[in-house]
Amino acid sequence: MACTINFNSDSTGSFYAGDIVTGTVILELKNDQKFQSIDLKVTGICKASWTRSMPTMPYIKIYSEKKKVLSLLMTDIFRDHSNGSTLPAGIHQYPFHFALPADIPSSFESSIAKVIYTVKIKSKPAYKLRKMASFNVLGNINLNHIEELLMPSFNEFRKTFRNSGKFTICVRTYKAFAPKQSIPFEITIINEKKVKIRKINVILIQKIRYNVQSGWADEEKKICKTEYKKFSQNIAEICFFNMEIPHLIPSSLNLIEPMVDISYIFRLQVIFPFHFTLQEEIPVTVATSPVIHCEF
């Protein structure tokens, strides 16, 4: 007896919150088999767990929670193929479909937490047939109706040197985008005393906040980086470069009290050979649908 669960997903292997998941269960029997029923169960589980040391007993505090974010059941899916309680030898197919709620979290996995979605096939009696397959879910984030997020953003940062005057940097970029988009940076530098600059880094950082009933924890992950090194050392100069956005989990928008809350920033670093680094953060939003930006 062989059982296969196939999904009709897109090129990324993902489904999107609010969409319809479709697929097929294929059951191949070499001999006639008696089943009371064969059920299909769809489940989404979100769980998180971590520990922190404590100064007093019990010295270690455990933060842990598990909750179900999706639960669907289709019973006796092969009843139209059976003769009473007997399923004849041969290949049996069951096309299935179900709707994903619009407010479920994206699939996720880290050392602290996991959000996983599965389809399980289980027979009665249970020992005869058990099969499980997981599928990937992404939040369905389209920001093209928010005009403010389609426009280039401007951020100005300053640094004062003890003996070298003021240093000003103005960053022009976009504050919302989707995977596979190329994001431009136009950086204007006002360098009154021509302080030497080693390089400018822009790093896309994924920031994660884990929320359980007993507490929270923060984590961040470096996603990708671009840099600029060719400076003219004039009092004023303009730098142009780009960042290619990789495949990403979208920002956690439209979710109520998510256990895994995902957001993003650009971390700007201006690195000097003889002075402390100027480091600033620019909040950004990652969508699912490509953002149709206004002209840069």
From TrEMBL:
<keyword id="KW-0716">Sensory transduction</keyword>
<dbReference type="InterPro" id="IPR050357">
    <property type="entry name" value="Arrestin_domain-protein"/>
</dbReference>
<dbReference type="InterPro" id="IPR011021">
    <property type="entry name" value="Arrestin-like_N"/>
</dbReference>
<dbReference type="GO" id="GO:0005737">
    <property type="term" value="C:cytoplasm"/>
</dbReference>
<feature type="domain" description="Arrestin C-terminal-like">
    <location>
        <begin position="163"/>
        <end position="291"/>
    </location>
</feature>
<comment type="similarity">
    <text>Belongs to the arrestin family.</text>
</comment>
<dbReference type="GO" id="GO:0015031">
    <property type="term" value="P:protein transport"/>
</dbReference>
<dbReference type="InterPro" id="IPR011022">
    <property type="entry name" value="Arrestin_C-like"/>
</dbReference>
<dbReference type="Pfam" id="PF00339">
    <property type="entry name" value="Arrestin_N"/>
</dbReference>
<dbReference type="Pfam" id="PF02752">
    <property type="entry name" value="Arrestin_C"/>
</dbReference>
<dbReference type="InterPro" id="IPR014752">
    <property type="entry name" value="Arrestin-like_C"/>
</dbReference>
<protein>
    <recommendedName>
        <fullName>Arrestin C-terminal-like domain-containing protein</fullName>
    </recommendedName>
</protein>
<dbReference type="InterPro" id="IPR014756">
    <property type="entry name" value="Ig_E-set"/>
</dbReference>
